[in-house]
Amino acid sequence: MLVVMSNSATEKDIQRVAMFLEAKGFEARISHGEVRVVVHAIGVKEEVDQRDFELLPGVLEVIKVTTSYKLAARVSQGQDTIVEVNGVKFGDKYTGLIAGPCTIESYDQMDKTAQELSESNVKILRGGAFKPRTSPYTFQGLGEEGLKVIRSVADNHNMAVTSEIMDISQIEMFMRYVDILQIGARNMQNFNLLKELGKIHKPVILKRGLSATYEEWLMSAEYIMSGGNNQVILCERGIRTFEKYTRNTLDLSAIPVIKKLSHLPIIVDPSHATGLRDKVEPMSRAAVAAGCDGLIIEVHHNPEVAVCDGAQSLYPWQYDLLYKQIKQIAPIVGKEIV
Amino acid sequence: MLVVMSNSATEKDIQRVAMFLEAKGFEARISHGEVRVVVHAIGVKEEVDQRDFELLPGVLEVIKVTTSYKLAARVSQGQDTIVEVNGVKFGDKYTGLIAGPCTIESYDQMDKTAQELSESNVKILRGGAFKPRTSPYTFQGLGEEGLKVIRSVADNHNMAVTSEIMDISQIEMFMRYVDILQIGARNMQNFNLLKELGKIHKPVILKRGLSATYEEWLMSAEYIMSGGNNQVILCERGIRTFEKYTRNTLDLSAIPVIKKLSHLPIIVDPSHATGLRDKVEPMSRAAVAAGCDGLIIEVHHNPEVAVCDGAQSLYPWQYDLLYKQIKQIAPIVGKEIV
Amino acid sequence: MLVVMSNSATEKDIQRVAMFLEAKGFEARISHGEVRVVVHAIGVKEEVDQRDFELLPGVLEVIKVTTSYKLAARVSQGQDTIVEVNGVKFGDKYTGLIAGPCTIESYDQMDKTAQELSESNVKILRGGAFKPRTSPYTFQGLGEEGLKVIRSVADNHNMAVTSEIMDISQIEMFMRYVDILQIGARNMQNFNLLKELGKIHKPVILKRGLSATYEEWLMSAEYIMSGGNNQVILCERGIRTFEKYTRNTLDLSAIPVIKKLSHLPIIVDPSHATGLRDKVEPMSRAAVAAGCDGLIIEVHHNPEVAVCDGAQSLYPWQYDLLYKQIKQIAPIVGKEIV
Amino acid sequence: MLVVMSNSATEKDIQRVAMFLEAKGFEARISHGEVRVVVHAIGVKEEVDQRDFELLPGVLEVIKVTTSYKLAARVSQGQDTIVEVNGVKFGDKYTGLIAGPCTIESYDQMDKTAQELSESNVKILRGGAFKPRTSPYTFQGLGEEGLKVIRSVADNHNMAVTSEIMDISQIEMFMRYVDILQIGARNMQNFNLLKELGKIHKPVILKRGLSATYEEWLMSAEYIMSGGNNQVILCERGIRTFEKYTRNTLDLSAIPVIKKLSHLPIIVDPSHATGLRDKVEPMSRAAVAAGCDGLIIEVHHNPEVAVCDGAQSLYPWQYDLLYKQIKQIAPIVGKEIV
């Protein structure tokens, strides 16, 4: 930690900071610059709140120089984490693909969609059984019945399954039906849930919260990893900004940044980010060109009758076209779609 | 719902929209303006997604004209909701006060703080037993032991208790110790938790999410109310913006806006919003001057040794001074502090 | 400047940073912490771009510890700046008031409004002659004719005049008619204009840009002050956030923050911030309760027929009522309205 | 314009709205829905402020259904605008490239950079002579001398020139040296400057303001076009959000959105958006994959000694590599780099 003193700090102010630091267990090292004095606090104390120092007389600013995430940090391991499910790889030089409808509506809907997707080489099927809806008056998902449907359909097409979990009480149920558990943006800081998912042995897709910084996102991954589960896939799905024309603002810069800060794979959800089908294709191609480790895309065999989020779902033929485009883009940026 | 057609929409486009609306169960009424045609969809269908219409050829924009919150809406009842706990009232012409430390650390700490606060007429004590911390490596609260402490201390000083609940599994425990349950900003859209709190018979403080719009916030209140619990207190605690000098940006305009849209009381948490003690006082006074229905303020008998968020906690003497100031401001704006 | 090295930085990386710093004219002082090494760059070089160091191998982060604003900084002078115009004071313990319509429409309109305002003790009249409008197809103001009108009306009522300047070419004209020049939010970083206003001898109201940080705002004040004009009044008028219900989000925390960072007076424009009349009153009271040094409020003798922004203009009787309320609030927070 | 009445609006409220609309010159058409009444205002009146209606009793919301930009709107012409300079085309199926240093430092620097860039087929050279710097104490550019340098160097390498103009007084000078005028983000709403650039006969690159919505951006283009200059190129360069790790958040969704709303070409500046060299390459590729009409990229023959923004400048060999990648990506998305 670095405590930067203000121009007008007195010698007494500096000594007070040093003493206060030592009382908290740090070694205090004072460095005089041309304009400012900086006190370097040597030591790592998780519980220290830097604002306690900001309030001391003569202090201008306090800067933390240790990151709070450790296991998720790039420096913690020599190479990129690769998560592999059903032969699909996410991370390092691999770009994995996941597709399926927003919501599990019926066996027939899932089967038709899966049939079409399997022709485009999709090996991981997505679909929501428990839906976090802003309004209590809208469809909340089929529940366990939905999980049974997606499992059965996926088995028939040799696919793996991913679906969103909303509550700790659902973990046991999800372990029976699902291969990759998803944590939605609204639950990115549901710390009790994260801790429990640290104890399971299945991969977790952790979506970025609507207004979460990169650091907070990695800290949430750390919650899972510190419990013993290293199979975390980060998923950028748009952030909230002043621009309301698109549902959210897809932050593709997250790709190179996360790859610098962490060894974890980062995938992109262009469907929730943009909210409209005609934006999904260009943004998917852009994500691959930026070097993402995967995509999760909403596809419905007949979006016009979809119960939920049909407007952002691709038609299967659109997905197929997109698949062919990104297969060409990936090798240009040194990636492989398997 | 209103479907606004673009300048270049053809007669066929307009007819397609009308037919599509009728297929969804609406009556379609077409109105020709000087530049644009507007199709008014008569009827209310919760499940209709307006984006399905935005994607039809010739459509410029689709506008929902019904609000999704009903019970929380001002029009749903003739007068302001007043929540009363231990003689303290929130809502209508009353401004209620809640104070206490961020975290329950020990019996001694709670007792000393409560003793000082009772001298400033505080009748509702706050304190966290389960803490939602960004990092898994920091103190996570005393848990049930903490709830026992705050209950016991509050009883000794004739105070009521409020504390933050983080998970459905804790409801039964909280019902034993706590008079008002708090939902933190990170859980504002933990819909499963909201639904369960709709079934209890105690007031709930619902904090605004870091990037929640007014409408989403009221929709979350609606989740609780639709379960049968009308005792919801909304709490503004700052939103996330580009400005990082303060921890969050306290949005005091929420006060007059929420009072226009809803009958529910709105209180303000200046401690979490600003994150620094010297900003808590001016922002508390500002909130009262803007007509808020209450304040929840962090106070610690000795902030310098607080385990958590000491930097934003007032000293008891500061709280007392602030109390005297807001007692003077309230009547100027037609409010009463009881 | 502080260069924080990453965990994985080698001794060679550290030496490279030190050498690079010395090449740029700094003295490099290396400090070894428990986890990280920090290199303290001693010296002040305006032209150095900290990102040049961020790109060096092994560097985690680079932190500037000198603020770029000097004359605007609190430490640059012993006491608060007080700007006085026509007996009205802004700054230190004084809260000054400015009122008038958004736009100068006619002599009759200005005269009627000024007549009413003079009865509420207003001594500085506002009104726009050149309007920065988002659309080229809307009314752009009366121009110089408007300035003549406001000057003449103000003289008749013993008032001073403030109006917004948009371009360097207008300075000479404004010097003839106006007592305080306003720089609008869109021009906060029109550096050529700021430089020229540094050469005049009249006070300048500098509105905060829609997405300007506190530091950028103070840097813009520095542009004016470094030219020799110290009479700068900062004006908070709302920032752009994700919340669109209000026109902008009024950031009242700016008041205590700016008062900590700078000696310059800070006033608030609640009319542009909220955009609706019924929000102007509570936010004006809140601003005074938070300790602002002044208010600039839109008032029109007949808002319903106002050419521009009538919706956010108070009726004169509303202004009078508000004036009476804030006269009572100011002394509670140690301020005086003169 | 559509006036949506609240649930509790009375018949009298509805009639008042209708009368008020007619007084403003509209025809009022009342439509009764299941829950709400909507009044459709027939007619187009530029000067009407919708908030005047929002304040009437019983009104819930007022919605404008006409866009304010007309010439910039897609419907205003049958096909995409193509801007062509020195054989480089922007728009429709063409992706044009611009490269060069942030700042013109010397003849030698420009010549070396241009020499390298010409080997990568660059035909339009960028370089700033007047720099909008946040601090008054940093290098402000070489001024006219800089324009002479870039013109002369460009002529030697058969290149065209683009540079940023900051003030109306510079227009005549820029017309002598520059082929494409740039308007920086801070000047996007400098309406006086926009109006003057409407009168010239050279293309203008209009950068998006840091917090400008798509609509405001197109309205600023409209200012230029309404003066008679149709050669406007829009440039996305990142917006300001809560995420501070990158300098700005590059909003690539702007590409498909602008292409839907307007016929004008849209290019991307990945250098200013991200602020760091290692993010420029992935974001450039992403922009091309999303279908942009051009890129403007900072390249310096020796970034480590650049006076300004060296950290975000590519080395010439990096540019060359990037050029080869995007040449491959463009045809996959139906574009051509000429």
Provide the descriptors you would attach to this structure in a database record.
15 strands, 338 residues, 6-stranded parallel beta sheet, 33% helix, homotetramer, 19% strand, elongated, 4-stranded antiparallel beta sheet, alpha/beta
Structural description of this entry:
The structure is a homotetramer of 338-residue chains. Chain A is an alpha/beta fold and 338 residues long. Chain A has 11 helices and 15 strands. Chain A has a 6-stranded parallel β-sheet with strand order 8-9-10-11-12-13, covered by helices on one side. A 4-stranded antiparallel β-sheet of chain A has the order 2-3-1-4. In chain A, strand 10, helix 6 (191-197) and strand 11 form a beta-alpha-beta unit. In chain A, helix 10 packs parallel to helix 11 (316-332). The longest helix of chain A has 17 residues, at 316-332. The radius of gyration of chain A is 23 Å and the shape is elongated. Chain A starts with a strand and ends with a strand. The model of chain A has no long low-confidence stretch (mean pLDDT 92).
